Amino acid sequence: MTAAAPLPEATPVSKPFWRALTEHRILVQYSPSLGRYVFYPRTLAPGTLADDLEWREIDGAGTVYTFTVARRPTGPPWADAVPQILAVVEWDAGPRFSTELVDVDPADVRIGMRVSPVFCDVADTGVTLLRYRPESGDV
């Protein structure tokens, strides 16, 4: 038996993001003063330090910015989960998001591949993880 995988813990700042995921929605902060979305959740806009951040829903569609295929476990909790495709997805809304690709053969993954969100509810925890799969027809 493998060790339980660690789960994210919401902070007061990130709670809206994690709560939305449990509803299978993606909320990301937007800064009107910057005119763009920002991620990771924070209290002040990057660069300007404006306190104008507001939560807005995005569809989560994007492209693979970079990826790696872990053929050895990245830690004991993932001993049975290899190969694991770790990726950074660039949302169409702008920011980049670290995630895992699912439902795809590692040999088929490529930078620039269109991907769509997959909401993975972790049983008995109240936590939902955001992963990605190729858009149909992009493999």
Automatic annotation (TrEMBL):
Xref: InterPro entries: ChsH2_C, NA-bd_OB-fold, Thioester_dehydratase-like
Record domain ChsH2 C-terminal OB-fold: where: 55-119
Listed Pfam families: OB_ChsH2_C
Source taxon at top rank: Bacteria
Name of the protein in question: Acyl dehydratase
Source organism of this protein record: Mycobacterium cookii
